[in-house]
Design goal:
Elements lengths: L6 H22 L1 H11 L8 H23 L11 H10 L15 H23 L13 H20 L4 H14 L3 H9 L6 H13 L3 H4 L28 H7 L3 H6 L3 H11 L3 H11 L8 H13 L11 H15 L3 H11 L3 H8 L3
């Protein structure tokens, strides 16, 4: 079979691979790549999603062209020439969610060279077998040649998609980090408020973004929250027991400015929120009374907490009544029904999942 006859198939494979790689890097893994490059370079360089996606796609295609030139696979097994490129793409986007101060290769030290060795021996065999491959009669879109190669290529791309980092919480955290570094705080808050799995680092990142807008007391419990005030304690150790996952960009952002920004300027709302997260309503009321004029309009979550406090405490330090009393009574009724009915439980979350009451009774005890 003349190589020229297989050119449409090879061109189609290149188009599919480049389209997938660019979209995968630019739309799905861009934020992960920002974190990876920041850590790998020690913060000296910054990953630009569009430029990075283009350059990596071109580089991986050039690697494939080199592999094709060496192996000479141009028939039914041509798509296998994309294996080293796919393997490298997987390596770049499979950083662990608990990544620390430096890139750790882990199992890749053995997997990467072993996979390339197996690929090398495999291509030697396939190149010899290629001589006796039966000729393909048709070269259109229904050609067996095209569909076999597309099938192999799709399996390689599926491998990349399945084995790379797909941790939703880590992706959201990484995206929030990037947006905050770009001074797009409101966009970061919107990402953090979306329903999804909570994590200590994501909770910390949400708190930091909200504190920049002075909205901790108004919106903090409207998004995913990891139970416990320890989630709002940044540390310099990623593997510490009180904060299991804070990536280097977060620490570079938070830790040096902790005393300046959080304690001096926004520390009060942080401390009040930490008390609420631990359910310490008496301590919360004392601190609130010392620092706020409770006769004025308080932030939403503080009002919710005071309504709850007045109902659960026999001798509240602050006597507080508002139009939220009736809403709280409705919440308790629906909560009681939710204990017996899954449908009512869904309704409860839909109606009150953005309140401190829901966190206090249903999230804090998880």
């Amino acid at each position: 079979m003349d190589k020229a006859l297989t050119f449409p198939m090879r061109l189609l494979c290149a188009i599919v691979f480049c389209t997938f790689t660019f979209c995968y890097l630019y739309f799905y893994q861009a934020d992960i790549m920002v974190v990876a490059q920041h850590i790998a370079s020690g913060g000296k360089t910054h990953y630009v999603p569009l430029t990075g996606a283009v350059l990596i796609t071109v580089a991986l295609l050039l690697i494939q062209i080199l592999v094709y030139a060496i192996t000479g696979l141009y028939k039914r097994m041509h798509a296998l020439t994309y294996f080293p490129s796919a393997l490298l793409l997987l390596f770049l986007t499979s950083i662990p969610s608990d990544i620390g101060n430096e890139i750790c290769l882990g199992a890749w030290v053995y997997v990467f060279p072993l996979a390339l060795i197996v690929f090398g021996f495999g291509t030697i065999f396939l190149k010899r077998f290629q001589r006796w491959e039966p000729e393909v009669r048709y070269f259109g879109v229904s050609s067996q040649l095209i569909w076999i190669n597309l099938g192999i290529l799709l399996l390689l791309l599926l491998m990349v998609g399945c084995l790379s980092n797909s941790d939703e919480a880590f992706h959201r955290q990484a995206r929030m980090e990037r947006l905050i570094q770009e001074k797009k705080v409101e966009e970061a808050i919107v990402i953090g408020q979306q329903p999804g799995e909570a994590s200590p680092s994501l909770t910390l990142m949400r708190a930091y973004a909200l504190s920049l807008r002075r909205q901790m007391g108004e919106r903090f419990f409207e998004g995913p929250v990891t139970p416990g005030a320890v989630s709002l304690t940044p540390t310099s150790s990623r593997n510490s027991t009180d904060l299991a996952a804070v990536s280097q960009p977060v620490r570079a952002l938070l830790v040096p400015s902790w005393h300046v920004e959080w304690v001096a300027q926004k520390g009060l709302d942080i401390q009040l929120t930490k008390l609420l997260m631990d359910g310490q309503l008496d301590a919360f009321a004392r601190m609130l009374q010392r620092n706020y004029d409770v006769s004025r309009l308080l932030p939403k979550h503080y009002r919710e907490a005071l309504v709850l406090y007045n109902h659960v405490s026999q001798q509240p330090l602050i006597v507080f009544h508002s139009n939220l009393d009736d809403t709280y009574a409705d919440f308790l009724k629906l909560k009681k029904a939710a204990d017996q009915s899954p449908a009512a439980s869904v309704t409860l979350k839909n109606h009150y999942g953005n309140t401190y009451w829901y966190y206090y009774f249903l999230t804090r005890t998880i």
